[in-house]
Design brief:
Distance between the termini: 77 Å
CATH superfamily: RNA polymerase II/Efflux pump adaptor protein, barrel-sandwich hybrid domain
Largest sheet: 4 strands, antiparallel
CATH architecture: Beta Barrel
Number of strands: 8
Radius of gyration: 21 Å
Order of helices and strands: EEEEEEEE
Length: 90
């Protein structure tokens, strides 16, 4: 017979790498065309004036300028009004 008893199974050993989401340029910082301002999953922040939204919802600068964040009211699909942050380049 073996002298080592059977070990249990490890169930919580899997983990994925971080996706590096979030803010890349803060309010008041200068940006140039094409620079990433905010990386997100879904529309947590809205793309405003001077910005563009890519297919994976990343907000890029569409022109040279300074980044600003503004609070806006936006209607949802159900008609409810919620507060959202809009990213702008002025």
């Amino acid at each position: 017979m073996s002298h080592v008893k059977a070990g249990g199974t490890a169930k919580n050993t899997r983990d994925s790498a971080g996706k590096r989401l979030g803010i890349k340029r803060s309010g008041g910082q200068k940006v140039t065309v094409g620079q990433i301002i905010f990386r997100q999953v879904g529309m947590t922040k809205l793309a405003g004036k001077g910005t563009s939204l890519s297919r994976n919802y990343t907000i890029h600068a569409a022109k040279d300028g300074i980044v600003t964040f503004v609070q806006r009211s936006k209607k949802t699909y159900t008609g409810k009004t919620v507060r959202r942050t809009e990213v702008q380049v002025i």
